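Q: Got a minute? One more chain.
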Amino acid sequence: MARIKNIELPNEKQAWIGLTAIYGIGKNLGKTICENAKVDPQKKVKDLTEDEVNSLRKEVDKHTTEGDLRRDVQMSIKNKMEINCYEGIRHKKGLPVRGQRTNRNAHTRKGRGKVVANKKKVGK
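A: Always. Here it is, folded:
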């Protein structure tokens, strides 16, 4: 059971894939960290020795991950909202930020349709 940055790495996965469980580490960075730490990326996490886990820890510490990265992202969003730039306004309104259409999809950001009161269909 390898624990890096207070995250339990999945035992049955290969080392480079297991590292992607840490926020801020993707597939490419996972491979790079394994190479720099001189750990075989194909080795399963449960088969890693304590020395290999320690070398992985040292390599991961060189990168901004987990709490620090989350804090940086939230601070940049808050900054954009304070200076009222376009992205900040979209964040405030709960709309898509990166140029997606809103008349068809965007239910993830906008939520379910809202019921309008006293709206009746016109009958003949």
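A: Residues 37 and 56 are 6 Å apart (CA to CA).
Q: Perfect, thanks.
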